[in-house]
Amino acid sequence: MSSPPIERVLFSCQIVHVYQIPPLTSTRGFSASAWTAPPAPTARQIFTARLRIVERSTDVHIATSILLEDARTGDLFAEAPYTVPAVVQQASDSSRFFAVRVQGDGAMKATLGIGFEERSEAFDFSIALAETRKVLGMEGSSAHATGSAKKDLEEPKKTDFTLKEGEMLRIEVGGKGRRVRREERKVDGEEDGAALYSIRPPPGSGAMPSLPPPPSAGQAKAKQQPQPSAQDLGFDDGEFGEFQ
Length: 244
Hints:
It is elongated and about 130 Å long. It has four helices and ten strands. The protein has helices at 33-36, 119-136, 140-154, 217-223; strands at residues 6-20, 45-57, 62-69, 76-81, 88-90, 97-103, 109-116, 168-173, 176-187, 190-198. Strands 4-3-2-1-7-6-5 form a seven-stranded antiparallel beta sheet. A three-stranded antiparallel beta sheet has the order 8-9-10, with no helix packed on it. The longest helix has 18 residues, at 119-136. 18% of the residues lie in helices and 36% in strands. It is α+β, with helices and mostly antiparallel strands.
């Protein structure tokens, strides 16, 4: 005999506004401004409910549902079994509004809009759903895909750029094309497999002219011109340095 399921409340909010929303017609998602914008925003609001996320677990199964209930009596207004992430979609233009796909008797489905009065409540609602997805294994495939993509980025494919025998490279040196040829060096008549790369000198270039050696100290002193004396310049200081 199986034991009765154990219920656990993952999230609860006493005031949530429920809206009747138009069908989704754009790939950008649901827009909350279409539910609440003038001239008559209250015309689409159909109920003010208490919202709870309830987890029911047995020995072999775990199920989670989003319940919209009457805050005064506790009567169930609508229930959304949280089986796939698409059951709840955040509005594209607000962090406080969501589109929830509810399910009624006979497996009939409808999409309702809900709005929280505080951003903190909407944030806690999103965190509770994220934890539920981890418990139910809804994020396993996406996490595996993300990990594979990250591995591909971290480990790029290696390419062999070594030259094969007979291949040639074209290198631009000084605006002119030069060819680089791979050769095999022979040692004692045997090929050792070492690759040599030689670049021919440009046309017209020969040996660089050698510069003459610098003069020695004696040659430099001999070439110095004698400095003129004071007498040659017209000065005569006399024997003791006085002018005469």
